[in-house]
Amino acid sequence: MTQPTRTRGEQLPTALSLAADGVPVLPLRAGKVPFGNCRCCVDNACGGRPNMKTAGPCTCPAPCHGWAAATTDPGVISSQAWARAWREAAAVAYHPGGAGLTVVDLDSAGAIAWAHAALPATRTVRTTRGEHWLYRGVMRSANAVRPGVDIKSTMAYARWVGPGTGPVTVLPDVVRALAVKEPAAVRPAPLTVPAPAGGGTCPHRTRTYLDRGIAMAEQRITEASGAVHATVYRTFLAVLATHGRCGCLTETHTTRLFTAAQAKGETARHCADAWANARDRLGL
What we know:
Elements: H1 12-20, E1 25-29, E2 33-34, H2 74-77, H3 80-88, E3 91-94, E4 101-106, H4 109-118, E5 123-126, E6 131-136, E7 142-146, E8 149-152, E9 158-159, E10 169-170, H5 173-176, H6 207-222, H7 228-243, H8 251-263, H9 268-282
Parallel strand pairs: 6-10
Antiparallel strand pairs: 1-2, 1-3, 3-9, 4-6, 4-8, 5-6, 7-8
Helix pairs in contact: 6-7, 6-8, 7-9
């Protein structure tokens, strides 16, 4: 059951309780927005977390930098540096990705109806405008993936409005696919490689050999349970080491690899960088 929203100054006990359960928390101001950077961190003068998109080296004791301020450390949460924020806080937020969760934020009756028809049942939390559906697993956050539907997981925060009802089920592929752009938007740079030395037949002999290799690479990325960046790079490197010098790889093959990586939360930029780094490593 959704617990009632607490009034200002009463958020700290809720935050400490969540942190004890391993949920990284931060205070929110009225309007469901995080507290602004402190004087030391204004305009990211500290050098950390530019535009709140990535974690940085900043060790500011205040709840700065939006989602990146979320923590499970009770000493930080109840510290003097956070005291003013909690006195003024209108709500508690948490970092779903940091708790190993993905939130499908449904903001309309139409979005809720779509979720019931298209998504596996999972824990549901009622919100002011709709529902949060919680799944176990993390992915790239994305807004407006459908009318009235946002995805909140890594590098995002969600307002805590209660524990909800029902068991939390595993994040399904249908949700991951919501954040994957069309292949044309993530097309990798063409691979230019020399022809086989001396000409002749491709050393891979049959198309089946290459297709099986790409399918295995997709599976390796899809099944990664951690260190996704490293897994994607190593997989790209293995594919290029095996297939990169004979001219077999086509845009279709590389797009399949990029799509598999994005389904695990990688951005188009991360994919392009990993592909380029693997090519450089092999001298392609």
